Amino acid sequence: MIRLQIHSDTQENALDLIRSAITAEAARLELGLKTTERHIRAFEERYHTTSDAFMGNMAAEDLDGGDAESVAWAGELNLRQRIAAQLETLKDIQYAA
User: Fold this and answer.
1) Side-chain-facing half-sphere of 24: CA atoms under 13 Å
2) pLDDT confidence of 8, banded at 50, 70, 90?
3) DSSP 77-91
C-alpha cells in the first residue's frame, strides 16, 4: 500500500489536482496495456502459439520475421509487464486526509 498525504499552504485544491493527474496517468496506462495486449494477441494468432511457449521454446529462426519479429514480440511482453507494474502501483495509492 502507498499512502499519499498532500499538504499545501497555498492551494486548497492540490489534492484534487494530484488525484486527477494520477487518475489520468492510470487511464493512459490502461490504454497502453490494451494496445500491448492487442499486439501480443496478433503474434500469438500469427504463430498459433502462446507467448509462454514463444519465450520458452522458440527462437528467432522459428519466426517468419526472424530477429526483428522475435525482438518485437519479446519487447511487447516486457512492455506489458512494466505497464502492469506501474498501473498496479498507481491503483495501490491511498490518499490520506
Assistant:
1) 6
2) confident
3) HHHHHHHHHHHHHHH
State residue 97's pLDDT score. 63
Those residues with Cβ within 8 angstroms of residue 11's Cβ, 6 or more apart along the chain or in another chain: 17
Q: Is 48 left (phi over 0), alpha (psi -120 to 50) or beta?
A: left
- Is the pLDDT at 30 greater than 90? The verdict is yes
How far apart CA 22 and CA 16 sit, in angstroms, is 10
Q: To which residue does cell 495509492 refer?
A: 93
C-alpha to C-alpha distance for 49 and 43, rounded to whole angstroms: 8
Q: Give the whole-angstrom CA distance, residue 88 versus residue 52.
A: 22
